[in-house]
Design a protein that fits this description.
The chain is an all-alpha fold. The protein has four helices and no strands. Helix 2 (12-32) packs antiparallel against helix 3 (37-48).
Length: 77
């Protein structure tokens, strides 16, 4: 995420949100160890519902950047 920020694929707000998402992974795992499946699923959804939008947007930017940077070059390179 930090590299994506450095090369301009993410702004500062998006980078902070993505790093927070990564940090929450451990917290979610901890919660999963202490509650039933339905509660775990609800907690995961509550914590991650907006992250998929961010990750989808970042992936689209990466694809656009790669296509732009390598347009006209053979696939072998």
């Amino acid at each position: 995420m930090k590299i994506a920020f450095r090369v301009g694929l993410m702004d500062e707000k998006e980078t902070v949100q993505a790093l927070k998402m990564i940090d929450e992974k451990e917290e979610i795992r901890h919660v999963a160890e202490h509650v039933n499946f339905e509660e775990v699923a609800e907690e995961i959804y509550r914590r991650t519902k907006d992250y998929w939008k961010l990750m989808d947007e970042i992936c689209r930017r990466i694809v656009t950047k790669v296509e732009s940077d390598f347009r006209g070059q053979s696939a072998e390179k």
